[in-house]
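Notes for week 9. Today we move from apo structures to complexes. The key idea is that a small molecule is not decoration. When we ask for a structure prediction with calcium ion present, the ligand SMILES becomes part of the input, just like the chain. The input block below holds both the sequence and the ligand string. Read it once before you look at the output, and try to guess where the molecule might sit.
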Amino acid sequence: MKRPTVLLPSLLLLAACGQPASPAAGGAGATLTPQATGRWVSGTYTGGAGARFYRLWVPGGYDGTGARPLMVMLHGCGQDGYDFAAGTRMNAQADARNFLVLYPEQGTAYNAFDCWNWFSTANQRRGVGEPALIAGMIGWVKANYRVDAARVGVAGLSAGAAMASIMGCTYPDHIRRVAAFAGVMYGAATTATGATDAMRSGSLYDPNGRGTACHGEMGGARRVVPTLVFHGTADTTVNPRNATQIVAQWAQTNDLAYDGADDGDVDATADASATGTACRSYTRSDYRNSATGGVVMQRYVIDGLGHAWSGGSTAGSYSDPCGPDATALTVGFFGF
Ligand SMILES: [Ca+2]
Ligand SMILES: [Ca+2]
C-alpha cells in the first residue's frame, strides 16, 4: 500500500496507515514490544508556545532513585507516538538500558498530515513555535522525572529529522545529541514549496551558511552537538543529497561551536569509512574533531533502503526490518 511521505505529504492516504493493532504495551497481543516492562504515560502539554499531546515511555527499571537519560523521538508525517514506537522498537531499548522516551505528537490540528512544520521560519528559532513547545515538553519531563541532563538526545524520521536538527540548533542546552533519519538540514526550506524542492533535489541553500546560522541560533547556549545521520540510497521521497547537506551543516556548526573559530577543526570530509552488511550493505563514515579526535558526526549510507527507519519493525509505518539496527546504533551513539 502506498503511504504518504513522512516528511511532507504528497498524497492523502494517511488515515490509519501502519497503526499498530493494539496501542497497549505489555498486554496480551501488544505489538509494540512483546517483552515490554515499562509503561506509557500520556497527556497534553501546554506551554507558552501552545499545546501538544505527548506519550512518555517510562522503562520498567525506572524507580526515581537515579537520573536516567532521555530519548526524544520525533515522528514523521502521518505517524504518531505509538506507531513510531512500534516501528523503531525504541521502547525495548529503553527497557533494556533504563532510559525514558518522550514522543511529542504533532496532530492534524496543526498540520493536515501530522507533519512537524519544520519548513516554516516561525519554527526555526529558539523561544517560539514548535521548537519552544518541544523544549517545554522536555522541561516538563525533567521537572517530573529524574533525567540526566547531560544525556538528552533527539532522534527523528523525515519531518521529525528536520525538526531534530532544529532542536539541536535552538536548544543545545537541552539537546546534547541529534540523530536524523531520512531528513534534511537545519533551515533546508523556508516555505512549503521549498520543502518539496528540498525533498526532491536537496536544499537550494548553502549548508555552510545554514551551519553558521544554526550556530548563531545557539547563542549563549552554544555547544558541540554530535550528530548521527542515516539515509537510504533508494529513498525516492527525500533525496539522499540531503544527508550530505546535514553533515556539512553540522560540520560548520560544530566547527564554530567548538572554539568559536571557523577554522575547520570539524569539517565535512570523512576521517574514516568502513563498509559492512546487516541485512543490507552500508557504509559508515566518521567525522572527527581534529583537535580532540572525538567523533562529532557519523553517517550511515544504506544500500537499497527506501524512505524508512533502518532495521525496524513492520509493526509500525515507514520502517524496514532489513538494514543495520538504527535504533540500537542511535542508543549507542547517544551513550545511553
Ligand atoms: Ca573551529
Ligand atoms: Ca568551517
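Confidence is low (pLDDT under 50) at residues 9-34.
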